[in-house]
Design brief:
It is a single chain. The longest helix is centred in the last third of the chain and has 22 residues. The two termini are 27 Å apart. α5 runs antiparallel to α6, α11 packs antiparallel against α12 and α19 packs across α21. Strands 1-10-11-9-8-7 form a six-stranded mixed sheet. The chain has a two-stranded parallel ribbon with strand order 2-16. It has a two-stranded antiparallel sheet with strand order 3-4. It has 570 residues and is of the alpha+beta class. A hairpin with a 6-residue loop joins β14 and β15. Among the domains are: 185 residues, no CATH class; 168 residues, no CATH class. Bound molecules: zinc ion. The site of zinc ion has 4 residues, from α19.
């Protein structure tokens, strides 16, 4: 699973009563949009250098890294083919047009990896594009209906059924028009064979055994379609170079959500942040023991927390580099692996920093009282994100409601996501304050974290409160405002933190949300979200001032380009 952190991504699953047939898909082709509107779409993404300190690696590791980036580059043309069967032809046509508008069309096409604007509910922006982005992507025949697929699957032997609904086979038609299974290794051989070769060359270069193991097993998976061993090796990876290359997320398959898209995140481990995390982790039980809730709701013995890695991106490709940039991800998705080995959360620190500079800083200049602006800091921003992630593991989880054993997720049902996100955000602030008061964290963080949180609230709710994180942030923002911790100057519409009230207000709200979770009360959660998970006029007015702030970044991978040549092939 990915988080994008700018939350522009709509996770809405549209329910179509009738799946469009092939001819319907093409009936109303996308209109060529004007140059100005194309430019506006491109300008939503601020070009930004994303780089990492490669020179600190020993020479052999640098060479291995270059090979891994070379392999990762192959995920771009592969993913291009997965998005839409017409993508390669369209890319070729666009590349031939050297006029200024032609170059802008190609630019917008590259950002979106296709002719549909991912920020605008996949609205087409190029002539010749189908009016609707095919939900089947290029994983299934475009004229196949859900019904045809289901009937076919039922007729298959069990092992084939699993493949049909599995991650690693596309569905095609034989010459008679019958549906058939084609393994990824065959469908994408043109890219997977050279990628496997490069990963194996990198495995020979690196001195780190866990990296060698992952690269070798992942290369084997590209020809066997069995990713289990390499997913396990990924969980055990402990090296300066931390790559993630392969078929992972299923968002692109909007028909069933079965088929994985290829992506690459080639990253370097951030040693300083990793040690900060380790320092935090040592205080988790102490935090739990001091949560501002009734003692009986605290957990006297916390279980182990899923590992978190902080890394800097050197290069991303494929599904990992289209539209809004991924800020963090949780993998693997294969339940066979997560049952045995758990999953790992990877936080892309330099991507988050780029978003902070290009998006949050301009927002601050439009919404925050002038005298507070110098208190905005990336360190406070990122430290709170780390705290948020760790806090998901704290507080009530397994519950007894009456005689019945249950858990918070089951009790809160559809409200769980926004509520749990709000809990992690507010308890994250409370936890940092606790560690500051104990002298574990620098006192300087105190002012910075509240001001930075206030400013970043506007970023979170900017794209609406229908998404879990945006709704959770609106809830916190409104309750803290009512409690006097946040204030708006009616004349200027600028916001500020009341330093004399914020600490107690945060502790009160932490206790309130954690108690609702401990009671497993759906009704109380519903009431809170209905009353506070809304956009009030002051906030809406502030959001209206953010129109010209970019939505996300368009990364330029300068460190990767210095060690590995960009591909020319499509
Ligand atoms: Zn969260």
């Amino acid at each position: 699973m990915k988080s994008l952190s700018t939350l522009a991504w709509s996770f809405t699953l549209f329910l179509f009563l009738v799946e469009p047939t092939h001819s319907q898909v093409f009936k109303e082709p996308g209109k060529q949009v004007s140059s100005a509107s194309l430019r506006a779409k491109i300008d939503c993404f601020a070009p930004t250098e994303v780089t990492a300190n490669v020179s600190r690696l020993p020479e052999a590791e640098q060479k291995a890294l270059a090979k891994i980036v070379d392999a990762a580059r192959l995920m771009d043309p592969l993913f291009l083919r997965q998005v839409w069967s017409g993508n390669v032809e369209m890319a070729k046509t666009l590349e031939k047009d050297g006029s200024p508008i032609g170059r802008e069309r190609l630019h917008a096409f590259r950002i979106n990896v296709g002719p549909w604007s991912r920020l605008d509910d996949n609205e087409p922006f190029l002539a010749g594009a189908p009016a609707k982005k095919p939900k089947s992507a290029a994983f299934y025949p475009e004229d196949m209906t859900k019904d045809e697929f289901e009937k076919w699957v039922v007729s298959l032997p069990d092992s084939e059924k699993e493949k049909a609904r599995g991650f690693f086979h596309v569905i095609r038609r034989d010459p008679q028009g019958k549906l058939i299974l084609v393994p990824y290794s065959k469908e994408y051989r043109e890219f997977l064979e050279p990628a496997a070769k490069l990963l194996k060359e990198a495995a020979l270069l690196t001195a780190n055994p866990t990296l060698k193991n992952y690269l070798t097993k992942r290369a084997d998976a590209f020809s066997s379609d069995d990713y289990y061993a390499s997913d396990v090796a990924w969980m055990e990876l402990d090296a300066s170079i931390d790559p993630t290359v392969g078929p992972y997320e299923t968002y692109e398959d909007e028909l069933f959500g079965y088929k994985t898209a290829f992506e690459a995140f080639v990253t370097l481990k951030d040693e300083a942040e990793s040690s900060k995390l380790a320092r935090f982790s040592g205080h988790l039980q102490d935090l739990e023991n001091n949560l501002p809730i009734e003692a009986r709701y605290r957990n006297p013995k916390l279980g182990s927390i899923a590992p978190i890695r902080v890394v800097d991106v050197v290069f991303t490709a494929g599904d990992g580099n289209r539209g809004v940039q991924t800020a963090a991800f949780n993998l693997p998705n294969d339940e066979r692996v997560t049952r045995e080995k758990g999953s790992k959360r990877v936080m892309l620190k330099n991507v988050q920093e780029a978003k902070f500079k290009k998006i949050l800083v301009p927002i601050v200049e439009r919404v925050l009282a002038k005298d507070l602006r110098p208190d905005i800091s990336f360190d406070a921003f990122f430290t709170h994100i780390l705290a948020h992630e760790l806090i998901h593991g704290l507080g009530p989880h397994d519950l007894k409601v009456g005689e019945r054993s249950t858990n918070v997720r089951q009790q809160l049902k559809d409200l769980y996501s926004p509520f749990e996100e709000a809990k992690a955000d507010i308890t994250g602030l409370w936890a940092l304050q606790h560690l500051i008061d104990k002298g574990v964290l620098d006192r300087k963080l105190e002012k910075e974290m509240y001001v930075t949180f206030l400013a970043s609230s506007f970023r979170s709710v900017r794209f609406g409160i229908n998404e879990a994180h945006g709704k959770g942030v609106a809830l916190i923002f409104n309750i803290l405002t009512d409690d006097g911790a946040f204030k708006v100057d009616q004349a200027t519409g600028l916001f500020r933190v009341d330093a004399t009230r914020v600490k107690e207000a945060v502790a009160r709200l932490t206790g309130r949300l954690l108690t609702v979770e401990a009671e497993g009360s759906y009704d109380k959660a519903k009431d809170l979200l209905a009353r506070y998970g809304v956009l009030r006029p002051e906030m809406k007015k502030a959001l209206d001032r953010l129109g010209d702030v970019p939505v996300d970044i368009e990364p330029r991978f300068t460190a990767a380009d210095a060690i590995s040549r960009p591909l020319v092939l499509r």
